[in-house]
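Entry 14: structure prediction run for mTERF domain-containing protein. Input pasted below.
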Amino acid sequence: YNIDVLRPKYKYLRRTMVRTLPDLIEFPRFFSYSLEGRIIPRHKVLVENQINVKLKCMLACTDEEFDKMVKNMIRKRNKIQSSVMKANTTHPQSLITGDITTTPQT
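Run finished. Output tokens:
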């Protein structure tokens, strides 16, 4: 590996992706991927969709697998958010008080 190739990848990992050294130690193959061709584009997709995954999940898959993973994570998040919204509309007072009251069972 050439230090001139490694340095920009390391800077992007630490400064832009805000990843830790243990993340890199866990997946040293990070350095084998293209910064412009794979790392940056995939990182942007994850940031835009507010998704955080391990480096291995982000990089060690095909474009099709990556797209499928992102879509699945978005779908799951939307399903959870929908459930929360339904719960809040079922108990609208909880939106004001932050508390869901239950009636005692007899």
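Notes: The two ends are 72 Å apart (CA to CA). Will compare against the previous run tomorrow.
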